[in-house]
Structure formats: structure tokens, C-alpha cells
Amino acid sequence: MIPPRPAALSAAPHASASPLRSPSLPVAVALAAAPVAVLLQSKAMAPLALVAMALAVLVHRRVHGAWPWPRAAAAWLAVALGLWGMESAAWSVVPGRSLGAGAALAGAALLGGAAARAVAEDTAEARARLARWLAAGLALGLAAALFDHLSGSALRAAVRGLREAPAALAFGLKPAAAVMAMLLPLALAAPWPGWARGALLAAGIAVVLTLPGESAKLAALAGLAVAGAAWVAPRAVPRLLGAVLAALILLGPALLAPALEAAAPRLAATLPHSAAHRLAIWDFALARIAERPLLGWGMEASRAIPGGGEGPTEETLARLGLTAPAQRAFLLAPGAAELMPLHPHSGALQVRLELGVPGALLAAALALLLGRAAARRAPHPPAAAGALAAAAVSALLSFGAWQAWWYAALLLVAAGAAGLPSRAR
């Protein structure tokens, strides 16, 4: 939720040279700590981001004498999405969970929008500090992630008190890779020499491509590609990105079914087990969307949808072309491949499945406005557009839309994008 571009505030009556009176300081600290924090434990992102944003709002209130209510329409759309999730409790198969998840999202979105405004209205010196700390924290996080990966998860095993790292611990690198993929484009705004920024971006891409998680790799590549395009066309590219994301959210579920029928049988044999499982999950989600096409099943109801705990049938595997012996052995093994393991691993599908047509319209409008905000109001449009692209790839292909650590990370990145130094136009 990127607020209006900040005006120069060095002469503002409430501005102060003291860092402790800087609303951006807590966000800068959180951005610097986030790469290592999410590497060690992804769930740490929620308290880290929410506390930092709350402190930013409180410092702004103390310094300026007024609450930084969000001005960006995107922030209020995110709040509306949470409120619609609360409303979905009326027909949800898990009403209590829908009510709680919607309230949490609405509250976090309101806080994130307020923090973004508070950070954007800080001094130019404070925003430069935020960008420097973000870049330094990202460099440290990339180094720690590479060490952990090459050492067989030794770092994360040590903080858990484990002498040996179980194989499953390696999957915990995926959230860290996704967060660092979002932060990479923001490092473009760091007030460093060009060679230093270039070295950080090159190292970041190399490290993320080394880590587990195909969606994070795509996110990192997409983020820097969009940032590069927006460097050339800072108005057009972010707007186009927002429009494309809105179309994917609205039309993606409708287009996915024929795409699966047409392409899956030809490509399925070459897919790794995780991707093959993803096809079965999406196929199940599409079938459940067809059962409740208008209002959906209720926010956070994916895990409770009837049949989600079962595995795919022989008929489903044949229809999707998942007939390779190794794939069949994995997907048909008891308990190995549930049709709905917590969420559909696609934000667009999850919104449509749980919140129906109104939820999809709200989410699409949110994506459209974020693209417009990156073009018109972000202090550094290439960085903001790149972060939006990286976030969108992970959101569309990986994590649960309402996971607190995930949307807290998104809000922190949005606040960071709002508080970057201005790019010369």
C-alpha cells in the first residue's frame, strides 16, 4: 500500500534530527533484521513487522500530533478485503476461523497503510537511512542463507538445538528466499555507489537461484526484470503490471481449467513431484469453486473443505497426464499428497475459492491500484514495481494468502517501498 510521494519535510515544524523521533526508524530496523529473522524462523516475520509498523505509527503521532491515517486507496481496499472475509463467516464452513482471519487481515492492513504514510512523511535523511539499512540487512541475510544451505541447514538446526538437521528443515529456506526476492528490487534505491548496488543484486540473484523453492527463483527474476523495465518506463510498466495482475486474479481460475486439460498431459511427465502435486491441488480447487461460484466457502475454509484430506484418484491422475510410475507412486501413497493441504498454493485460486466473486473483485482492484501507486506515488517506481512483481509471483504460486507471516512481510515491504529515497525523475 504505497502512499502519496512524500514532500520534503526537512523544514517541517515537528521534524527532528533525533533518530528516536523518526517514524521510519522502527521500519528500517525491521527491514534490516527481516532477512535473517525469516531465515531462522518464518513465523518471526509477523511480530517483527507488526511491532515495527505499530511503533512507526506511534512515533509519527508523538512527533506530528496526529495519527497517520492511510491516504492510499489501496490500503482501504486491503481493509475491505479483510472485512469481506469477516462477512464470509455468515456462510463459511468454519465461521469462527473466517471471522478471526478477516479481522486480523483488516487490522494489519490498516496498520500497514498507516505505517506506510508515517514512513513516507519522514525526512529525506531518514529515508536514506532506511534504504541503507535495508540493503545491509539483505546482504547479511543472503550470506546467512547461503551458509545455511551449503552447510546442510546447520545454522537453523543450531538455533533449534538440533545436533543434526532433518531433511525437511531445508524446506524452511523457501520463505526466506521469497522475502529476499521482494527486498532485492528495493535495494536499487540504496544510496550506495552503483557498483555496490550492482554487486548486491547480482549476489542476491545468484543466492536465491541456489536456494530451494522454484517460485522464489521466479519471483527474484521477475522482480529484477520488472524493475529494469520500469527504470526505462517508470510510468507505463507499473501500471501495466497492476493491470496484468488484476486480470490474472479475475480470469486466472477460469482460464486454468482449460489450460490444465490442454497442457498438463503433455508436460506432466517432466514435472517434479511437488509440481505434479500442485496440479492435483489446483484441479481439486477448481472443482470446489464450481460448487460455490458466487460467495465461496469462507475465508480460511480451504483446509476444511470436504474431500481435501483425501488423495487424488486414478481417474484424476490419468486426466491430468500424471501417469509416470514415480509420480503415481508418490501421489497415490497414503497420506502423501492431500488434495487440499491447508491452502491451494495460489493466491488467486484461494481468493476465488474462499471469498467468491466479490473477493476476487476486491483483490483485483487492489492489484490494479498498487500498480498505479507504484507508477504515480512511489518515491522510487522501479524499486516499488519490482517488489510488487516479486511479491505477486510468490503470492500466485506458493503461500497461503492469509498466513500472518506472509501478509505481514508484504505490508512491511510496502512500507519500505513507501519510505525509500526519491529517484531523480
From TrEMBL:
The protein's name: O-antigen ligase-related domain-containing protein
Intracellular or extracellular location(s): Membrane
Membrane topology of this protein: Multi-pass membrane protein
Record-annotated O-antigen ligase-related domain positions: 200-363
Alphabetical list of InterPro entries matching this protein: O-antigen_ligase-rel_domated, WaaL-like
Residue stretches spanning the membrane: 27-60, 72-93, 99-118, 130-147, 167-188, 195-212, 218-233, 240-260, 349-370, 382-399
Pfam families xref list: Wzy_C
Signal peptide start-end: none
Main location as per UniProt: membrane
Source organism of this protein record: Caldovatus sediminis
GO cellular component term, pick one: membrane
Keywords, ordered alphabetically: Membrane, Transmembrane, Transmembrane helix
